[in-house]
TrEMBL record:
The lineage of its organism: Bacteria, Bacillati, Actinomycetota, Actinomycetes, Kitasatosporales. Pfam families: Glyco_hydro_65C, Glyco_hydro_65m, Glyco_hydro_65N. Belongs to the glycosyl hydrolase 65 family. Substrate binds at W361, D362, K592, Q593. It comes from the Bacteria. Residues 760-770 have a biased composition (Pro residues). The active site is at E488 (proton donor). This is Glycosyl hydrolase.
């Protein structure tokens, strides 16, 4: 296992016991708190030192032009970039006459704990100033999962050893200075001072700033209220200017005395509401938070997480590191999606500005599967967000000469944000991924209202896209040519198997949905002829296959390409996209990330066990995992093919991606898809869970390292618990009427009468396939 460990291994917490300024930005991502609406990076309370200051509000972005050296028809003109909004978490501290700044003086002790059960970030430290004054600082921070607009900090300073004068400046700061950006200078310009002041206010313990973004025209309001508790002569003063509102609290502390500030912060933004309305909105949110007070918010947060863990916890015996990692992963996946409420769930959640804050297919294929079985309400909301962007997707399809809707490859507000066609709009599979998420959610919840009001239209509009994008050849076979599948080292290729299989499912799901909802079908103008055409296309979908090799092709002709020269590729030349031209990657057999292998997971009914094993053995030596989305998919299929050790190594890589900063870019934000993929590797990999038309199937098998794996799933209003040991598995229905599922192909009916226990058959022995040179998994 990986030895360079930044955080102690504990079941329910991520603990840092030393402050390493060199990895501050990484820890800010790891310790980020979010509820899907507000995101606060784990910046130190005092604001500095910092790696990357970050406060985000889901959906708040700025626009910047996307000029092209060589323009082409249909290129998006405007880029969208998440911006750092008004920072409400700053509490600066002056100790006697020196700023509390950990770059100076002596840090006697330091600890930060991300408490996964209570949903708070706790910090304790003791610091001696250069002039010799010592203070203890404790803070607890939360971003409320129950009050969407609210975040809060309790900050406490204690004098140690001698009488000390302390000043706390609790601030709201807009247009914070950010470290020099790297990357696109046009985006950088949009990010410098992105907020124009509209209103500032300070009175008593209350502060408020309202700003507006320049181009996107979004109004951002942040307000704070405080409860101050200090010894007798504690004084307060508040003031505000365009970009700063400040409450200054001054006190003289005898040794052992404490000054405590509880800061409640309310956030809001809107593209339409007026200045007074936004001021009122944040004041009202603040009033609600103050009504409950700090302790009330803390209690609610704990209750909310208790409920989540009852539904979602994954228990791993025999491997403490993976146990911690999967809870860390689930916590961040929940944070990313919990209260996003009709906004996107970005690839980095709200933990950093990586990928410009854009959402990709990561949402529907990685994040939503986890939430479907653990927090399904959040899935309905995420898909309602997609639905709300239908007008932009329809417009894009029209612009491209296609029918239905073409959802963007990357976006914040719904329009295409990718300036590069081959790894952008050409990745049309995102449309089938959205459809898949709709079908999965409805099958798991039975939410008929959602299907009628939101699902049908998403299915119909995406089916229309496929029908217009593909064509029947002279023999009747249906082809979808010129698209990019999940593997971005193959682009604009014909008949990508993943895309074709997912499109096939999309077309059939749409045909089924319009039969169940004739009223919606009529409203959307779907007639019998159109839905028959969808079925025809689905039934005739071409799946490229190499008979000689007995493997499915990732896309037509792929297995004929020249193999990539792995022997001649140095370890420092990965990721390949930074060292080799795309044109060369595109015409060789080299796979960035699971593509055909992912198809075998998401469309498993199409592949018998022998093909799963053969295909996996074929693609494994070609797959370089230059995307963090790959390891978890490879874990799932490695487990199915019986390569349990390899599956474990991939699961560990997905799980430790951010805790160990395996890709060296955790500073930009967490890899939310890989975190979600941890659950996928355990539940779909070692639990062997698959979704079939007749319900859930399990084919559990544990890797040597695990002595037990247990997880719960929310299913059709019931709670199912699956507990797996090396030789047997137990299925228990915790509530609700009986349910039939499959264990290694055998139907089993579970009821609340007690667990159903079945033996776990050993896997068929097969030689473990190799990976490309230098690309063996990181987590083994
Ligand atoms: C991957 C995509 C993914 C994106 C955002 C890229 O490197 O190839 O599949 O959607 O990152 O995570």
């Amino acid at each position: 296992m990986i030895t360079d460990r930044s955080y102690a291994v504990e079941p329910w917490a991520v603990r840092e016991t030393a402050l390493d300024l060199d990895v501050l930005a990484q820890s800010e991502s790891v310790f980020a708190l979010s509820n899907g609406h507000i995101g606060w990076r784990g910046n130190l309370d005092e604001g500095e030192p910092h790696g990357l200051p970050g406060s985000y509000l889901n959906g708040v972005h700025e626009l910047h032009p996307l000029p092209y050296a060589e323009a082409g028809y249909g290129y998006p003109e405007s880029g969208q970039t998440v911006i750092n909004v008004t920072n409400g978490k700053i509490l600066r501290l002056l100790v006697d006459d020196e700023p509390f700044d950990l770059r100076y003086g002596r840090l006697v002790s330091h600890e930060r704990i991300l408490d996964l059960r209570r949903g708070v970030l706790e910090r304790t430290c003791e610091w001696t100033s250069p002039a010799g004054s010592t203070v203890r600082v404790r803070s607890t921070r939360l971003v409320s999962l129950t009050q969407r607009a609210v975040a809060a900090v309790a900050y406490e300073v204690e004098a140690v050893g001698r009488r000390t004068r302390v000043v706390i400046q609790s601030e709201l700061v807009a247009n914070e200075q950010l470290p020099e950006p790297n990357g696109d200078p046009r985006a950088a310009v949009a990010l410098q001072s992105p907020l124009e002041a509209e209103e500032h206010f300070a009175s008593g313990h209350r502060l408020r700033l309202v700003h507006r973004t320049r181009r996107s025209g979004l109004r951002v309001a942040v307000a704070a209220d405080h409860v101050v508790d200090g010894p007798g002569r504690t004084t307060t003063r508040s003031e505000s200017s365009a970009d700063v509102a400040r409450l200054t609290v001054t006190s003289v502390l005898e040794p052992g005395q404490r000054l405590r500030v509880e800061k409640l912060v309310a956030h809001g933004w809107s593209g339409t509401r007026s200045l007074p309305a936004m001021s009122d909105q944040v004041d009202a949110a603040l009033a609600a938070a103050a009504h409950d007070g700090w302790q009330g918010l803390l209690d609610e947060q704990g209750d909310c997480l208790d409920d989540f863990w009852t539904r979602a916890d994954v228990e791993v015996d025999g491997d403490e590191e993976i146990q911690q990692a999967v809870r860390f992963a689930l916590f961040h996946v929940l944070q990313a999606g919990a209260r996003a409420e009709r906004r996107a769930i970005p690839a980095k959640g709200l933990t950093g500005s990586g990928y410009d804050g854009h959402a990709f297919w990561d949402t529907e294929m990685f994040v939503l599967p986890v939430l479907t079985y653990t927090a399904p309400e959040a899935v309905a909301e995420a898909l309602r967000w997609r639905h709300s962007t239908l007008p932009a997707a329809q417009e894009r399809a029209t612009q491209l000469g296609l029918g239905g809707a073409a959802f963007p490859w990357r976006t914040i507000e719904g329009s295409e944000g990718s300036a590069y066609w081959p790894a952008g709009t050409a990745a049309f599979h995102v449309n089938a991924d959205i459809a898949d998420a709709v079908v999965r959610y409805v099958a798991a919840t039975g939410d008929g209202h959602f299907e009628r009001d939101t699902g049908v239209e998403l299915l119909v509009e995406t089916a229309r896209l496929w029908r217009s994008l593909g064509h029947h050849d002279q023999h009747g076979a249906f082809h979808i040519d010129g698209v990019t599948g999940p593997d971005e080292y193959s682009a604009v290729a014909d008949d990508n198997t993943y895309t074709n299989l997912m499109a096939r499912a999309n077309l059939l799901a749409a045909a089924g949905a319009v039969e169940r909802h004739p009223g919606q079908a009529a409203r959307l103008g779907v007639d019998a002829e159109e839905s028959a055409a969808w079925r025809d296309a689905a039934e005739a979908m071409h799946l490229p296959y190499n008979r000689e090799l007995g493997v499915h092709e990732q896309h037509a002709g792929f297995t004929r390409y020249q193999p990539w020269d792995f022997a001649g590729t140095r370890p420092d030349q990965y990721p390949l996209l930074l060292h080799f031209p795309y044109f060369d990657l595109y015409r060789k057999q080299v796979v960035k990330q699971a593509d055909l292998v992912l198809a075998m997971y998401t469309c498993g009914a199409f592949f018998d066990e022998e093909h799963v094993a053969r295909n996996f053995a074929y693609y494994e030596p070609l797959t370089v995992r230059d995307s963090s989305l790959s390891a978890c998919c490879q874990a799932v299929i490695a487990a199915q093919a019986g390569h349990l050790r390899l599956a474990y190594a991939y699961a560990a890589e997905a799980a430790l991606m951010d805790l160990q900063d395996l890709e060296h870019n955790t500073r930009d934000g967490l890899h939310i898809a890989s975190l979600a993929g941890t659950w996928m590797a355990l539940v779909a990999g070692f639990g062997g869970m698959r979704r079939h038309d007749d319900g859930l199937r399990f084919a559990p098998r544990l890797p040597e390292r695990f002595s037990r794996l247990a997880f719960s799933l929310q299913l059709l209003g019931r709670r199912l618990r699956v507990e797996i040991h090396a030789d047997k598995a137990a299925y228990t229905l915790l509530d609700g009427p009986p349910l039939t599922l499959h264990h290694h192909g055998e139907p089993v009916t579970v009821s609340t009468d007690g667990p159903v226990i079945r033996t776990v058959p050993p896997p068929k022995p097969r030689p473990t396939p190799d990976q490309p040179l230098h690309r063996a998994p990181n987590g083994g």
